[in-house]
Amino acid sequence: MPDADASALLLDASGKVRSDADFVFYNQATHASGAVRHEGKQSSGGGVTDSLVVDLARVEPAVETVVLAASSDGGSFGKVPGLHVRVVDAASGAEIARYDSADASVETAFVLGELYRRQGAWKFRAVGQGYSSGLEGLATDYGISVDEPQQAAPAAPPAPAPTPAPAPPVAAPAPPVAAPAPASPPPPPAAPAQPVRLTKVTLTKEAPSVSLTKQGGTSGALRVNLNWEVRKQFKGWASKLGRAVAMHADLDLDLCALFELSDGRKGVVQALGNAFGALNQPPYILLDGDDRTGAVSTGENLTVNLDHSNELKRLVIFVTIYEGARSFADLNATVTLTPQHGAPIEFSLDECTVPSTVCALALITNNGGELTVQREARYLVPERGVSPQRTIDYAYGWGMNWTPGRK
């Protein structure tokens, strides 16, 4: 089934965006005003919801319409069952409006609805306008500049060989003339705004790796985000053994990383033991904080300074259950790696069917200067008395000495 992504466009009275910054989607998740935010996907009841948060009180006066759109990746919307948009009150959770699209076929993008101003109040209008040209066609229609691959211009035919010109007659030398004062050079032209990049990379079992180097993502900050949702409350792998596994509301997952530098130094970045790392000195990896909500706007985040990628040899990003559950059963999690340059990389974790408390998410390696991201999504089961960190160490051959720690 194709992957569907939500997006929003903020339009002025002309019906167009004021700039590319008025486009909110997976590669540009928050509007500068803070009024519109792309929250990301959550799975529930066999379906997937991609959420946008709109704070109508913060929408700038010049914005008259917020377009609510969706695009598909990997097929048309005719293959996406139950396509609809819901407007829900954030405070009460009550559904204010809903529009179901029942006639999608070859479309790969849809404007599902609009929030618009009318006599000082905000209203919702169902639209249902489809595009067979995908998110690029939809965005361009509203005035977005899209980053497209540049095609080389066809080679010009060779010019004919020049015919020798007759020598000019010799003239008497002209009297010297005072040279005019040099004119001030014109100011350099303003740098053009960078167009919006629509591409993204989804890693799967069939296509589990991508080269950051080939994507152009070898400098700047690489942000790694883990967000999750508990699908069930009291069911899991252990229920088959007659024991219920409880996923509590205070589920605490910790995003961590084992690193090895090019000079042979090894270590771990994690909340346990306050080993949060550093960006501008070894290990050039920073754990942003410790979150318990799983929300994509916060979640668990690691940042890797790719300006020092030549000093990084390999990096295993993994997650452990610190408290709140005995395994990852019934946990729906998504991993997103967003390089400062290049397309974002995302993948989902498979369903956990073993008593695992530690999962290897991704392996980043530097092989001869080429950075590669490998989807691992590998649930590991620690032996009795062995910590999750030591279990990851054994699985990937880090060879470190471990001692107990706490937050």
TrEMBL record:
Chain segments carrying region Disordered: 149-194
Gene: terA
Protein's organism: Streptomyces alboflavus
Database matches in Pfam families: TerD
Similarity comment text for this entry: Belongs to the CAPAB/TerDEXZ family.
InterPro entries cross-referenced by the UniProt entry: Stress/Tellurium_Resist (IPR051324), Tellurite_resistance_TerA (IPR017115), TerD (IPR003325)
Pro residues compositional bias, start-end: 155-192
Name of the featured protein: Tellurium resistance
Domain TerD: 3-142
